[in-house]
Amino acid sequence: MGIANGIRKQAKKIATGERRTSTWAQTLQEAAEELPPPAPVRRLEKDGLDISMAWAIIGIFAILGLAAVYMMSLILIPITLAVVVGMILGIAAENLSKMGVPRLANAFLLSSGVALVIALLANSLAGPLATLANEAPAFVERTITRIMPYLERIEWLHITPATFESGPMSIGALLENTGNVLHVVTTNLTPALVQGLIFFAALLLFLASRVNLRKTIIMTFRTRSQRLAAIRVINGVEQVLGFYFATASLIYVGLGLIMTVIAYAGGLSAPVLWGFFAFLSSFIPYLGITLMTLSVAIAGIITHDGFVVGLMPAAAFFTVHLVMENIIFPAVMGRRLEINPFIVFLAILFWTWMWGAVGAMLALPLSLIVMTVIEELLIEERPQPQLPK
Do residues 125 and 273 lie in contact, with contact meaning Cβ atoms separated by under 8 Å? Predict the structure, then answer.
């Protein structure tokens, strides 16, 4: 079959004048005319069983991939977080490079800035957290005293003051469980330190090799259109992440300051800690505001004698957050970064199940990355940049 195809190609060249005619060429042309026509290519038809087997194989590899992501969370969490933070800082890194700052110094300055911010936050929160840990026994007793009248009204719970005097819900058992929680936190401190070191090392190396990594990814593709698509995707992801988190951070810092004032005016202990939690929880859509509002409501009920007065800090925080999320945030962002709320909710649940609290923080950035990739690759109506020839 290969020889016959070769004869046909040579005969075609002779017929079109691409090759000089000779006796051997004439003989070759005659031989090509005598050859039987090539057999038509038949496409193998697949039945339902073949399609099911193909999808089953894909499903098996998907499950194995998810299992690998879950088992390697100790390494993948800090690396993924470093890549996301590095892409957020991509615009700042590019501006520093234009100012003449070397890449290594550029990466060192930005990673040191991130470490400094984290250190300042940890230092400012160390005092309130230590106070909260020391007051844990009194806080538990005060909590039980305050919520007992409300629990007694719910008859199907069968909770009375004797419930907290003996058994698993006694004050001693609760304090013991509090100690177990602290033991768990202490036990997980070493992996957290290891992940922190991996994060800063990965962030430094990612920022230092950012340009070379971009070139490597772009040059991996062969055709011009594929390289253009890779450039659009990389630039789009960096712009979306940088714009979103720069704007969101400014808005949520304002929300944290307002929450600090609300906590101080509402008589809640550690108002700075409440402000920090309000800032941090705002980056987790839906779940963050829900948990924060419930926590403020419980703290207010415990702190104040009146039920309505106790709920006022939670109501004030929820109102402010509602105004920021539905009026200020859309006015600043516009429709540029709209994502289906249901998809975001599923992404938060999935990554929280995979990687815990850090996964919940990464759910929105990963959703933005996927959204940007889909928009850049599938939307053809927008004008596309052209490389210089």
Answer: yes
